[in-house]
Amino acid sequence: MIEQPNRMEAELIIINASIVTMNDDNPTATALAIKDGQFCAVGDNAEIMKLVGPNTKVINANQRMLIPGLNDSHLHLIRGGLNFNLELRWDGVPSVADALRMLKEQVDRTPPPHWVRVVGGWTEFQFKERRMPTLDEINRIAPDTPVFILNLYRQAFLNKAALRVIGYTKNTPNPPGGEIQRDGQGNPTGLLIARPNATILYATLAKGPKLSYDDQMNSTRLFMRELNRFGVTSVIDAGGGFQNYPDDYKVFEELDKRSEITVRTAYHLFTQHPNNELNDFKAWTETTQPYTGSSYYRHNGAGEMLVYSAADFEDFVEPRPELPAVLEDELFEVTEHLAKHRWPFRLHATYGESITRFLDVFERVNKEAPFKDIRWILDHAETIQEKDLERVITLGGSIAVQNRMAFQGEYFVDQYGAAAAEHAPPITKMLTAGLRVGVGTDATRVASYNPWLALYWLVTGKTLGGLSLYPASNRVDRHQALRMYTTGNAWFSKEEDVKGQIKAEHYADFTILSDNFFQVAEEDIKKIESVFTVVGGKIVYGTQEFHSLAPPAPKASPDWSPHNFFGGYYNGLNDGGDGSGGPPFRQQRLHHSCNHHHGSGFCDLDCFVF
What we know:
This protein is α/β, with parallel strands linked by helices. A hairpin with a 5-residue loop joins strand 12 (about 180) and strand 13. The longest helix is centred in the middle third of the chain and has 17 residues, at about 350-370.
């Protein structure tokens, strides 16, 4: 039955789709209509075609699966966008040989003083060789061009040229919280080790050259388009180290003014001054209010770092970090200030031992400044203890999990054992207890931004290396996984009434998929992409039969950007290594997409173009 509050002429209509609406009152449909950036009707082909007018664009979905746009509840889009054009992505690359070939090509074209950077999104277990690249291999490839390769929150590889530029020598002391690995003579080898936190990795990366403002604008647009490629239409930006407010947010503010945002972004403010965290938040609560902004760019509260003493970055190769005794007092004063100002907040929280201490603080704050109606989030929670789940519920909290274990589950098993890994994190226990559970990637410095890897992890319980972590009791079915990634995540930015469902008066954000998520083999979930993405009723991405309907991607600037030669997530078509022609377009047999401007006739689905 058609869901249509008012008879009107639609601006855009999609027909012949297999629509999963995530609206329990109208769970499936074959067609939808859009007007003024919102869905205005959802129903069957014949009913929706009654809304065709002289200016209506009608697009045939060719029986493909259509879902609400995906929404990542924890992704570092703002920081990632500022740097996307600088980074060579190893996301999805199948072998060390391919990774090193790409590195060599990029080294040869990168001009001084710029570096070649590989910043997260990969794991050694995705490679068929099941190993890391070596420093010797990297130095042979790049004797003169600085190279920085980040692996998780664990370590970074720097070639000799990078060590020279940064100035790490035999006499450089280890910084607090990190180690510069040295050879027998005391000279740096090029390996930086996060011990016990990632400060040394982030601080070293921050020493490299930055893009110009105009290039950052271009870079951010391209990163959003890359997310659109996978059907992502919304994210919650969790702040980040060396992501400074307001300076690093200016690009997004300008893109919002230009109406050029293609991924709706709710942003958090991450404290920037160790030992002065409260002053950061006092200043921000004076000038900024949660949930203000536009429908494309809005403030969502504090975090994910509230105080540096609470930073329990996960590194499952190393022992769990012991957090300092000052944690409780520092976290109390910041959280109390936020609660009194009714600010939502989120807190990076990996380990159960840390989370118990955090909750002790929150319970004290709640007595002084009740949390009632404040939406607050524990992020990650890989080893949260079952006894603490009820405490989170009592305080009105929620948990956002990410597929970080898919990238480092093997390390976790080595450190803590397979039995402990079976419920790291305890997703189904969270859901059964009645918690709101968000899902995302924590891209780009740990996991990849590809949401289908996270959906694969939720459904299969496997790492990218194929290790089965979770029994069936700690996995979710595909419908639940998709619900978490759409309507479920909308709650975390207080947008559940306008986002996450294909429903009249909700934002017209959706994606048409390359394959049916409910029907493909489990291993093929990782291969799903969008073929057509719409945000606010505007077409922002299209490929295959929808290629001609989408705006063309801008060329990455500067010209030598890795994106111009490799694209983003590895697509399997750049094995030739010639570095020509930019990101390749899959040439396949294409269905026809037609535009009807009158009547109710449909395309002949047997008609093809090439």
